[in-house]
Amino acid sequence: MDHGTAELEKINISDENEVKSLKDVDTNRPFRRQAFVSMGSFLLSFSAGATAGISAIIIPQLLHEEGRHKYSTEMMSWVAAMSSLALLFGNMISGYLMERFGRRMSQIILSMFYISGWLIIGFSTNIYYMLVGRFITGFCQGWLGPLGPVFIGEISSPAYRGLFLAGLSLSIASGVFMSHLFGTFLHWSHASILCALFPLLGCVILYFSPESPSWLASKNDIDKCKKSFYWYRGTSLVMQNELDKMLAEYEKKKEVKPKWETLKDNIQKPEFWKPLCIMIVFFIVTQLSGINVICAYTTDIMKVLIGNNKNTYTAMLATDVLRVVALISACILLRRIGRRPLAIFSGVFTTLSLITLSIYLYLVEKRIIRHISPLISLGLMAIYIVVSNLGISPLPWNMVGEVFASETKGLGSGISVMMTSMAFFGTVKTAPAMFHTIGHHGTYLFYGLSTLCGTVFLYFFLPETRGKTLLQIAEHFRYGNKEKSKESNNHCV
């Protein structure tokens, strides 16, 4: 009897055809199954990126539309910021819904809301309907924030997990590009309707996919858990060992306690509060680096950097392409270098590029440099886009699905992403006022100094998670550098 058959006998399945299909998982390459199901989450993240980027299309088109409607700067800032305001409310329910309905089903429900939000924007006849649609899509963006990384982190093998989690950030950047591309050639209403295709396709993929094995284990549905795990991961000895450890961990937690007491016990554990503090700071630093301000106000920013209104859409699309290329590079580098070195490198050079851009724009404003050179200003912005998207932009979303123990994933990821949503809203809503009061040079200086402070924090506290199982990461926070943590690392895949 071969090893695969021996392992599958543990599942207690009577249907021989089902056993045979599970046995064939190893030969069918689990990577392809994980990649296919992750594509469902990626398409929802496409929609999240489009939500962040579409305001850069809507605002200039509204301002240039003929008619009696004249919108103030304050109203236009709400068009950009409404979705980021709704993020917080999506974050609040995300953890509960993913624990109540499961990771897969939550994403299916989410996609329905996403589609409705895009259609409301597309068919809106006044700005107030548009704000409603922006709120719904922003709500979904916040809902997806903790949900996508947790789902992908639980279904993917340690060897591929970093790649797939980085793919979420790549999908967001691709969604920004697609919304800008649609809006460059189409009216904003048609562009919005096209954006509804992303969650529709994602919903179809997720509908035919198994649920997360970890969630099934937490619900004590062991048979379905094993079937799902073998479908996603295969039946190799290494994967079987990980499954056994996961089930053993859940077995220990079966003692009956009141929910509040269980929650209280969990939040006092170092494997909860240590990664929580790290992720909150990391997410806030990402927002204070100005990443989403660039997405939301790309056309206005390009007018300043170019020095006129010509070629702003071309510069915007070039920036989007550069962002996508940088994130593809990040996916590759994460497998070869790891999270920590990439975060430090990205933080240092993001700081330098922002401060240098700030100094250059200040010299132009003070007429020390007579005319702005698009080659220099756009070059510095290009460096900023590349280095920020190599690390500090994708890594928080990558790591939030890794660093929390299984029983606190929903709570920990929900709180972490809730904090970034607050920072997201704050930076996007205040950006027009900052540009007006302290200028573009002052705004970029503020973002650069904020990134510098965050990078110093990450240098001292951010751990490396590359190649470690979720259990080993939890043990790192639980035991620190104690001997038991060292022993667990001997089993690292």
TrEMBL record:
It holds the Pfam family Sugar_tr. SUPFAM superfamilies: MFS general substrate transporter. Keywords: Glycoprotein, Membrane, Transmembrane, Transmembrane helix. GO terms for cellular component: membrane. Its main location: membrane. The keyword ATP-binding does not apply. This is Major facilitator superfamily (MFS) profile domain-containing protein.
